[in-house]
UniProtKB/TrEMBL annotation:
InterPro entries attached to this UniProt entry: Ankyrin_rpt, Ankyrin_rpt-contain_sf, Kinesin_motor_dom_sf, Myosin_head_motor_dom-like, P-loop_NTPase
Lineage per the UniProt record: Eukaryota, Sar, Stramenopiles, Oomycota, Peronosporomycetes
Organism annotation: Phytophthora nicotianae (Potato buckeye rot agent)
Domain Myosin motor per the UniProt entry, residue ranges: 1-668
SUPFAM superfamilies documented for this protein: Ankyrin repeat, P-loop containing nucleoside triphosphate hydrolases
Region (Actin-binding): 556-578
Name this protein carries in UniProt: Beta-glucosidase 32
Residues forming coiled coils: 846-876
Gene3D superfamilies: 1.10.10.820, 1.20.5.4820, 1.20.58.530, Ankyrin repeat-containing domain (1.25.40.20), Kinesin motor domain (3.40.850.10), Myosin VI head, motor domain, U50 subdomain (1.20.120.720)
GO biological process: actin filament organization
Membership in a protein family: Belongs to the TRAFAC class myosin-kinesin ATPase superfamily. Myosin family.
Amino acid sequence: MPGWTALPPHVFSIAEGAYRSLRRRLHEPGASKKNQTILVSGESGAGKTETTKFIMNYLAQNSLDTTATTSSKRKRAIGGSELLSANPILESFGNARTLRNDNSSRFGKFVRMFFEGHELDASLKMAGTSVETYLLEKVRVVHQNDGERNFHVFYELLAGACDDMKKELQLESLSAQEFQYVSGGQCYQRNDGVRDDKQFQLVLQSMKALGFTNVEQAAIWKILSALLHLGNVLFVASSEDEGEEDNRAASEPCRLASASPSSLTVQEHLDIVSKLFAVDQEELVSALTTRKISVGGETFHANLSLAQCGDARDAMARSLYAFLFQFLVSKVNSASPQVQERNPANKAANKDTTPCIAVLDIFGFEEFEVNQFEQFCINYANEKLQYQFIQDILLTEQQAHIEEGIKWNAVDYEDNSVCLEMIEQRPSGIFSLLDEECVVPKGSDAGFARKMCQRLQDHSNFSASRTDQADVAFQIHHYAGKVRYQAEGFCDKNKDQPNAELFSVLGKTSDSHLRELFEFFKASETAELSLGQPKLRRRSSVLSAVGIGSQFKQQLASLLDVVQQTETHYIRCIKPNDESASDQFDMAKVSSQLRYGGVLKAVEIMRQSFPVRMSHSDFVRQYSLLTTSPSCTAGDLIETLKVDHAEVGRTRVFLRQQAFDQLEKRREQVIADSAVKLQSSWRGRQQRRVYIRQLQVLWSIQVRWKAILEKKRRIARREEAARTIQHSIHCWIQALQRRRHRSAILIQFVFRRWHQARVTLSRTAAEASAKTPRQEDKSEDSVGYSGRESVLTIETLEDDVLSTATASVGTSAYSEDVELSPMDAVRRATLRGHMSELGGATDSDNAMLKKALREVERLRRRAEAAEAALSHFAGRDVDVSTEALSMVATRADGPYYNRASDGGNALWRQLNTSNLRIDRYGNTVLHQAVESGNVELACALLVNEASGALDMLQQAETQRGYSSLHLAVRGGNFEMVSLFFRPEVLPHLDLNFSDREGNTALHLATQLQVKIASRVLELLLCFGADANAVNFLKQTPLHLCSMIKRSGSATCEIMETLLRHKADPQKVDFLKRSPLHYCMEKGMYWCSESRRVRLVNRVMY
C-alpha cells in the first residue's frame, strides 16, 4: 500500500501500521521485537465494537497473498475466518440494548491474532486466534433498567426459533412480554434496524461454521429456555412467616406462587425447568427454598425467606449464564489453531513470543441516572486505559525526546493516577473496603458506604454529601467527570455466590449432554463453586477473600502488563451525540470527549514529537543501500540523502512520518529495481533452457512425423498397385468366363441343330424307301432339299448365334418350371392362365418337364371332379381341400367362376370356409382369390358373407406374413382393393396390420406404379391408415416414397398425398435419416419449379 500514510485518517491505517511493524519484526533482523496492540476506547455507543470488527476483517484479508492461488488463500485464511464467524455469537450472548446504545458490549474482550511469516515473500499469514473476556455483566440476566433489554440472544431465540424448536423448548405461543427475566425494562425491540429473527439464523450459521455439534447446540438452547422459565418460578411465604423480615430464616419453606406473568402457572414453568434440566423436581425446589448448614460434622437444613428464595433463583440464573458464556468463548478458541497447542511444554512463553496483533475492545465510560456496581467496574477499567494512554503518549514521548537530547517543549496534562490509587490501594482502597465488608458478619451496603466516607472523605477524587450518605451513595471524580454511584447491591454483586445445593442438583441430571456441559462449568477457572460438593471452599483467611471487583482488578492489571510489553496503537471513538442519530454533531459533546480523553494533549505532543525512531545501526543498515558510500554514520547518511524533518539523537534517529515515508518509498524503489533485474536475468536463463529443450523436442517430432508420412505413402503405393493387379486379374477372369459361356452356347446350339437335321434326314429317307419308284425321285429331291436347307440353317445360325442363343436354349414356355415341384408348377401354370395349353409341350422338352405336365393334367382333372362335387358339401362342416377350391377359384372357365358374382347364389353363402385347410404357404381361399385377381370369387367370399370369410382378413400367410389386403395392394388391382372398403367389410379390416418386415399396406402402396399408387394411397389414408407407421427399419411410407426412383412429378404427387395426411417429414429411420435427407440426396430436379416449391413449403411448414 504505497503512500498509505498520506491518506486521510482511517481505522485501516492503524491496522496497516500494526501489520507493517509486525512484518518488520519477522523479516528485518534489527527491527523491534515487540508485538502489536490496538486499544479501542471511547464512550458507550461511540462505535468501539464496529471499529474492532473492521480491524479484524482488515487484518484477516491483508494476510491473504493477492498473487496466491485460490487454494493457497483458503489455507492462509483459516485463523481469520473462525474469528469473524465468532462475532455474531459473541455479540448475541454478550451485547444488549442500553439507554445509550442498541448494541452495547456488556463484556470486555482481548483478541489476539497470531501470524507467521510466509516462505515465498515478506507477507504474513494468520496462524490462529484467541479470545479472552472480562467482566460479563451477568446481573443483566435477572434485572434490566427501564428502557433496556436483556442480552440479545433471549429475544433472538423467541423471535427466530422455528416451530419444532419452540415445541421442543416449551416456548410455544409464548412471547418476551410473558417472561420476567426479559421484560424488566419493558423494551423488546432494537432501534438500529437489526431484526432478532434474522440475527438468530446468523447465530446458527456461525455455530455450524465453528464446529458446534447439534448436541451442543441443543444443550445451549435448553439452558437458555430453562433460564427463561426459571425466571417465572415465583414463591410466596408460608402463612406463619407472613410479615417477617426478608432476611430472617423462615419457620417453614416458601411455597410456589399460583400465578405467573405468562399464560402458564408457576407449577407448569417449574415442570418445564425440571424437564429441560432433566433433574428431580423435588430436589430442585428444595435447593431453591432451603440451605444446608454443616456444624460439627452434622448437616442441618435451614429454610430460606421469600427474598432469599428469589436471590437463590437469580444467583443460579446469573451463574449458569456466565458459565455458558465462558463455554462459548472456549469453543471459539478451540475452533482456531491456537499457538499454545503447538508447544505444550512452554505454553506461556510460546504465547508471549509468537508474533501477534492484539485488539482490546472493552466497554466505554458509562454514566446513568442510577449507576451501580457494574458501572463502577466499567469506569475503573476506562480509568486504567486512560492512565495507560497518558503513559504511552505523553510521558513516554516526552521522556524519550529529553533523554536523546532532542529539543522539546513541556506539555501539561491531567494525571489520573491519584484516582486509581484511591480505588486500588490497600487497605483503604474502595476494592479492599468492599472485600472487607463482604466477609465480615452482617456486612451490608450501608456499612460499606459508611467506611468509605470515614476513610476517603479527605481524598480529592471522592465526595459524599449528606444526601448521598442518606441514599447510601457516593461520588467519584473520574477523568471524564464526576459520577454518582448507588452503593446498594455492591456487596451482593461482589460476592455473587450461588447456593451450592443448586449446582449439586444440576450435576445429577439424567441428560448426558447437559452433564458434560455442567462438568465444563465445574472445571471453569471462574467458577467459585465446586459442583457436587455441599459446602463452599474454605479460604486460608477470611480477610484474604477476593471478590468480583478485586478479581477484575487483577485481570485488568495482568492485561495491561501484556499491553505494556507491546507496541501500542490507540483508537479513540468519539460519540457525536447522545441520541445515536445520524447527521447530528453536538459540538459541546465532542469537545468534552476530546478534552477529557486526552486527545487534544496528544495532538499537541505529536506535533512536536518524531513518531518514527530507530537506532543508529538499524538506520544505517536499512537505508545504506540508497547511497554508494561503503561506510557512513547515521548523520552522514541523513546529510547525503538530504532528509528533512529528521533529528539524530544520542542513540537513536528520530523521523517524522513524512520523512520516513519518503525514505521507505526510495528504499522500496531500489529494492524493486534490483528485484526486476534479478528476475529478468533469471527468467532469461530459464527461458533459454526452455527454448533449447523445445527445439530438441520439435526436431524429434519432425523426424518421427516424416517417418510416419513416408510409411503411409509407401503403404498407399502398395495398395494402389494391389488394386491395379486385382482389377486386371478380375477383368481377365470375366473375359475368360464370358468366352467360355459363349462357346458352350454355340456348341449346344450347333449340336441341337445338327441332331434335328439328322433326325429329319433319317425320317425322310425312311419315307422315301416306302414310296413307289415314281415317288422316289421326288422324295430324293425333297430329302436333298431338306438336308441342304438344314445345312444352310446351321450355317446361318452360327453367324447370328449370340442373338438367337437365348431364345433357342429353352425348348418351350414351361422349361422354367422344371426346377419346381409338381404342385408349384401347376400353381405357376394356373396363375399364368396356361391350363388350356397343357398339351402343347414339344418333344424337345426334357423328362422332368414332361413329368410336371403330366402332374398338372392329373391335378386339373382332380379339380374338375372336386368342382362337380362341391355342391354336395354346401352347408356341411366338411374338410374341403384348399388346393381343390383354389383350382376352382383360379379357373376362368369353371362352373362357379361366373356365378360367384351372383349375390343370391346359396352355394357361396352356405359354404363353411372355416373348415378349409390352409396350405403350406399359409394361404387361405381369400389369399388365392386375391393373388390370382379373381374379383368375383373375392367378392363372393367377402360380400355374400360366406361363413368365416371375414376372419380371413387378418389371416397372414406364413412365408411373407401378408394379409389379404397386402396381396390386393401389392397386385395393383384397384377394383380388388376397393372390395375391402365396402361397408360390410371395412369394420373387420385392420388397415395398419404389418407383415413380417413390419410393412403395412401403406408401405406397399408407395411402391406401386404411379397411376394406381396415388389412388390406393388416397383410399387407405382416407379410411384411417397411419401415415407415420414404421417398419422394422424405422421407415415410414414417406421414407420409402423418397427412396424409390420415379419421375419427379410422380414422386411429388405421392409425397403430397402423404403430407396432406399428416406424414412427418422429420421422422428418422434406423440410420438416423429423415425423408428430407433422402429427398435432398435425390434432388428436386424431377419435378417442375411450381410443384417443387409447393412440396418444399408443405415439408417445411
